[in-house]
Design goal:
Layout: E1 2-12, E2 20-29, E3 32-38, E4 47-50, E5 55-58, E6 60-62, H1 74-81, H2 91-100, H3 103-119, E7 122-128, H4 135-146, E8 151-157, H5 165-177, E9 183-188, H6 195-207, E10 211-216, H7 224-230, E11 235-238, H8 244-251, E12 256-259, H9 261-266, H10 274-280, E13 284-286, H11 300-310, H12 315-322, H13 324-329, E14 346-349, H14 356-359, E15 366-371, E16 374-375
Parallel strand pairs: 1-4, 1-5, 6-7, 7-8, 8-9, 9-10, 10-11, 11-12, 12-13
Antiparallel strand pairs: 1-2, 2-3, 5-14, 14-15, 15-16
Helix pairs in contact: 3-4, 4-5, 5-6, 8-10, 11-12
Bound molecules: N-(iminomethyl)-L-glutamic acid.
N-(iminomethyl)-L-glutamic acid is lined by residues 66, 90-91, 94, 187, 215, 218, 263, 289, 291, 293-295.
């Protein structure tokens, strides 16, 4: 059954030809967008919803989360706010809790966080393994995620657990998990995996037909960005500490720079250099990095507001980065955009324009969400 959503005060389509429309309407047919245009030209359909002048955007595309986990790291957060640095080793605390949880507990926790994100307008989610770090636990995380999210990434290379672990990741673990995931990722950072180790993981993933993502340049300068660009990764995520050569490499590539402002704030890092990247011509995405250690939020609205208020991005750039940019980072064309044929994922704000996302930071502005054509 087709639904006409009309009375749209401002419609962000992210389609270069359609642009941003005023007094617009959208027709949804099943799980797809069937028509987009000015309200006065809308076709007659079975059902009509008038959003009375509100702004409509594509649903958020959260292209970086770690949501297959159990446990809590409040104490680590408190210590950090008291001045302790963030260290990769905190991951081990979540690994222990995740291994001890049942499949049902992990799935319920994932569902709870996805529902929380959906209530805030997030309609497409990527999530990673990486809190299992044994063949059986990584496989279990991938299978749980596969049934519940849009995109699943293998992150067995999240923490180096000791001698022989790299061989395990690049061999038996990837063999076991490859059929369950589309992507592989590596935490390329001091305290996790160095450049050559990261390259080994990524090449082993390529050999098994997986797409690549990289955690790079999070806690200091490092080889992650250059490695991601050289190997044609879809995205390099964090990008907090970049040299000019890193920015140039990203600008001359199809690798998306995915910035995670909530993580930078929660780990007391500087905010990633969004303006430098955009001015150089790099493609930028924004994501939450929702995880219990470095960034425990599912709020894309918070990331957008931070990007505008503190990272020098315009509202248009930030909204694009959190929708179409996320889609680009996941190499998808069906989400993050509202045009005929796209997935019917819509986010209606209780506000007349997307500017209110930054103008009214911290205010829950989601008024309605459609995901795959269903009002949630
Ligand atoms: O993206 N950097 C590595 N992984 C996560 C942190 C995970 C954790 O601290 O539990 C991140 O920040």
């Amino acid at each position: 059954m087709a639904i006409l959503i009309t009375g749209i005060g401002e419609l962000t389509t992210n389609d270069p030809e359609l642009g941003t429309l005023r007094e617009a309407a959208v027709v949804l047919d099943g799980d797809r967008v069937a028509w987009v245009g000015p309200a006065w030209r809308a076709p007659a359909v079975d059902e009509r919803v008038d959003v009375e002048g509100r702004a409509v955007l594509p649903g958020w595309v959260d292209s970086h989360t770690h949501l297959v986990f159990a446990g809590d790291r409040t104490a680590e957060f408190e210590a950090r706010m008291a001045g302790n640095p963030y260290q990769a080793g905190g991951i081990a605390v979540t690994v222990e809790a995740t291994r001890a949880a049942s499949d049902d507990e992990l799935a319920a926790n994932l569902r709870r966080h996805l529902a929380e994100a959906l209530r805030q307008g997030t309609t497409c989610v990527e999530t990673k393994t990486g809190y299992g770090l044994t063949v059986a636990d990584e496989l279990r995380a991938a299978r749980i995620a596969r049934g519940l999210v849009d995109e699943v990434t293998f992150l067995g290379a999240h923490l180096n657990t000791g001698p022989g672990y790299l061989d395990l990741v690049c061999g038996e673990m990837l063999d076991a998990v490859a059929a369950e995931v589309r992507w592989a990722d590596v935490f390329c950072e001091n305290g996790a995996f160095d450049g050559p180790e990261s390259e080994r993981v990524l090449r082993a993933a390529l050999d098994r037909g997986l797409g690549l993502r990289v955690h790079g340049n999070q806690l200091g300068p490092g080889p992650g960005v250059q490695l991601a660009v050289r190997l044609g990764a879809a995205s390099v995520d964090h990008c907090t500490h970049l040299t000019d050569a890193d920015v140039d490499a990203l600008a001359g590539s199809s690798t998306v720079a995915t910035l995670l402002p909530a993580c930078d704030l929660s780990t007391r890092q500087p905010l990633a250099p969004a303006r430098r990247l955009l001015d150089a011509g790099a493609t930028v995405a924004l994501a939450t990095n929702a995880n219990p250690g470095s960034s425990y939020t599912t709020s894309m609205g918070f990331c957008v507001a931070t990007a505008v208020l503190q990272m020098g991005m315009s509202v248009d750039e930030a909204v694009w980065a959190a929708t179409a940019g996320g889609a680009r980072a996941l190499r998808r064309e069906d989400v993050g955009v509202l045009r005929p044929g796209a997935r019917a994922d819509l986010h209606v704000l209780d506000a007349p324009s997307a500017t209110h996302l930054a103008y009214r930071p911290g205010v829950p502005l989601t008024w309605a969400v459609w995901q795959r054509g269903e009002r949630t």
